[in-house]
Amino acid sequence: MFDQIRLNAWSTGLRHKLSLPLRVELWNGQRLDFSSEPPRVTIRVPDAGALRYLLSPSLYSLGTAYVEGAIHVSGRANDMIAVVGALAANSAPRERLMGALRKITHTRETDAAAVRYHYDVSNEFYGAWLDPNMVYSCAYFENGKETLAEAQLKKIDHILRKIRLGPGHTLLDIGCGWGALAIRAAQRYGARCVGITLSENQVRLAREQVERAGVQHLVQIRLQDYRDVAGKFDRITSVGMFEHVGVRHLPDYFSRINNLLVDDGMAMNHGLTTTDIHSKAVPYGGGEFIERYVFPQGELAHLGTVLRSMQEGGLEALDVENLRRHYARTCAIWTDNFEAKADQIKLLTDPRKFRIWHVYLAGCSYAFANDWISVYQIVCGKAGRNPEAMPWSRKYMYT
């Protein structure tokens, strides 16, 4: 009886504030609709004990309930995230919108374990919804009409132009994924490339990709921590990797890049940032969900923190580009691909992992669209260099 009273009060209050294409189906057959339009999302509550997730909704609580099977949610992922985001925003106290600062201890062992957890689901799993080159980072939509495959190649080419890669240059790609950037650099520029990752699955397939491309004489793929790399490189790229470093370790990370770079070299860091100036987690429990289920040990810094850390590491930022719109589009396409291949993907992983990724990809698109997180490409070089080495304009990036 008490649960029914709370539910009635909650549903009445919600209808007065919001109109959502949501239907809630209870264990006793009762249906609650929150809009005059047909529901696009249905939440099924199988027993009274599961009401607590609905009555105190957050991205973490409802996401956890969905992943663990405590509630059942149907609908397209984008609609699910939009509805749950509205429920969370309606119930969250204003002073607690952003997640708390987290103290995460990063070691080589924990970092490697976190990378393996995220990337070693299976190569077939990622191949089902990524582009043919399996580029798992923000694409670059030069005019907004590109396919995902075209936009991912344009992203790689955009990066290689930005760092002014030339024939015979040595290139270190930190967090090389399945090798697409290193292969492209070798094919188009004749660069001698080293790609490193902590994922054994990525290493295995990346080496196969290198062989198929016929650039094995130019590209070496290693299972290696960036802290263990020796030597000097003309160019260094890091795409979608520094989120694993940890905010407190960013100065050391950039210092390591500085030490690996030749005096007149160029580097580029492409990575996610939070839009919270104190580097807190994304709001409404979204950060806690990602930490638990998707990116253990992952931390996002504010752009200002990144630039300060870069300077502390002895590097000067030469160019900064915001690609938030591009990543919202990328994640939206990944979500569509995931749902289109749902039957195939369900055979490649367990139901719980399927549900995690089903909402995670759509949630990322939602977070970029709502300016909770962003992504920046930052071109840099060693601080203190003679400015004569710098280009007068950004024109060379678009030639």
Summed over residues and divided by their number, the pLDDT gives a mean of 91
The main pleated sheet reads as: 7 strands, mixed
CATH architecture of the largest domain: 3-Layer(aba) Sandwich
What is the number of domains? 2
General description of the model:
With 399 residues, the protein is of the alpha/beta class. 43% of the residues lie in helices and 18% in strands. The strands form 2 sheets. The protein has a 7-stranded mixed beta sheet, sandwiched between helices. It has a 4-stranded mixed beta sheet with strand order 2-1-3-4. Strand 5 (170-174), helix 8 and strand 6 form a beta-alpha-beta unit. The radius of gyration is 23 Å and the shape is elongated. The N and C termini lie far apart (70 Å).
Descriptive key words:
Nonspecific Lipid-transfer Protein, Chain A, 2 domains, Rossmann fold, alpha/beta, seven-stranded mixed sheet, 399 residues, 11 strands, 18% strand, four-stranded mixed sheet, 15 helices
Helix and strand topology:
Elements lengths: L1 H16 L4 E5 L4 E3 L7 E5 L5 H5 L3 H9 L4 E3 L2 H15 L16 H12 L3 H5 L20 H15 L7 E5 L5 H10 L2 E6 L2 H14 L5 E5 L9 E7 L10 H11 E14 L11 H8 L9 H10 L2 E8 L1 H17 L1 H5 L4 H19 L3 E10 L17
Parallel strand pairs: 1-3, 5-6, 5-8, 6-7, 8-9
Antiparallel strand pairs: 1-2, 3-4, 9-11, 10-11
